[in-house]
Amino acid sequence: MSRKEKAAAMHIRRTAGDWVFDIAVIIFFCIFTFICIFPFYYLLINTISDNDLVTSGRVNFFPMLKGADNLPVFGVQLNNYVALRNVQDLGSSVLVTIARTIIGTALMVITSAWAGYLVTKQKMWKRSLWYRFLVITMYFNAGLVPWYMNMLMMGLTDNFMAYIIPGMVAPYNIILVKTYIESIPASLEESAIIDGASTVKVWLKIILPLSIPILATIAIFGAVGNWNSFQDSLLLMNNRPDLYTLQHRLYIYLNSSSNLGAMMSQGGQVSEQAAQSMLNQRVIQYTVSMVSIIPILMVYPFMQRYFVKGIMLGAVKG
Fold it and tell me: How far is the C-alpha of 221 from the C-alpha of 232, rounded, in Å?
C-alpha cells in the first residue's frame, strides 16, 4: 500500500453531526470566555467614562463621554485614575505592597521548596511527626485574638516583618511541593549522592531546576495573597501609616468618599474643594477594583504555562 493510500485509509470521515458538535462546543466556550472577561471589561470602561453617565447607568459596552446636548458619545478619559493622586501616601503604600509581594513570595517559595524536599527524606528525624504537625495546622486555627496577641508578643506590630514572617511557612504549598518532588525519579538524586553531592547541593542543582512548574504555581498563590492582603495591615499597623498596604490605603479612601457621599445626601455642608476631590462612590469602587487587580492580571499570563502543569502534577499523590 502506497503512502497516499495509507493516509487515505487513516483519514476519518467527519459526519454532519461531528461538525454540529464542534460548532456547538466553540460557541459554548466563546460565550463562557465572554462571561469570564466581561466583568473586568465592564469595570474598565466605567473607570474611563464620564462619571455622570456611569452614575446614571448609561455605560454598558463602550466607554462614553458627554457630547453635544449632553448626549453620550464614544470617548475615553483618565480623570478617575488621576484623581487617585489625592489619596494620601498612595505612593508609599504601593512600594510597601510591591516590597511585601516580592520579598514575601520569594521567601515563601524558598521555604516551601526546602521543607517540601526535607519531608520526602526517610532519614529526616521524626519526619512523620513533623509532617502530621504541619498538616494539622491547615485545619485548626486559634482565632483572631490569639493571633494578634502572638504577633504582639513577638514584636511584629508596627513592623514590616509582620508581612513577611507569618507567611513564610505555608502548609498547603509545602504539601504540593512534597508531592511534586516525589514524582521526580529517585535515580537522579542517588546518582548525585554517589558522586559526592551533599543534601543542599542536590536540592540546589537537581531538585529546584526540576521543580520550576510547582514553584511557579505556589509563587502565583503567594503573590496574589500578598498583593490582596488587607487584614494584617489593618490590625497590626495602627501607629505606622507609612506601612499601610495599597489595599488598606484604598479602603480608607473608599470609606472617606462613602462618608462624604452620605453627608452630602443628607444635606450636610462640605467644602467645594473636598467635594471636587472625591469621585462618586460607584466610580471609586470601580477604579479601586481596577487598580487592585491590574498588576495580578499582568503577571498571571506569564506564569500560566507553569501553573496548569504544576498544580496537576502536585496533586496526583496524597
Answer: 17
Mention every residue, 6+ apart, whose C-beta is less than 8 A from residue 207: 113, 117, 181, 184, 189
Give the residue with greater pLDDT, 262 vs 171. Answer: 171
The total domain count for the chain is: 2
C-alpha count within 13 angstroms, C-beta hemisphere, residue 223? 18
Give the pLDDT of residue 177: 87
Q: How far apart are CA 150 and CA 23, in angstroms?
A: 58
The answer on pLDDT for 276 being more than 70 is no
**pTM of structure:** 0.72
Q: Is residue 111 part of a domain?
A: yes
Looking at the domain assignment, is residue 254 inside a domain?
no
User: CB of 44 within 8 A of CB of 77?
Assistant: no
Domain housing 213: 84-244+285-313
Hey, which residues does 73 pair with through a beta bridge? Answer: 65
Residue 256's contacts (CB-CB under 8 Å, 6 or more residues apart) are: 278
pLDDT band for 107, please (50, 70, 90 cuts).
Answer: very high
Per the domain annotation, does 261 fall within a domain?
no
Residues 105 and 183 reside in one and the same domain: yes
- pLDDT tens for 58-93 read 777 888 777 767 677 777 777 777 777 766 677 788
Question: Residue with C-alpha cell 460565550?
Answer: 31
Q: Domain end: 59, 77, 95, which one?
A: 77
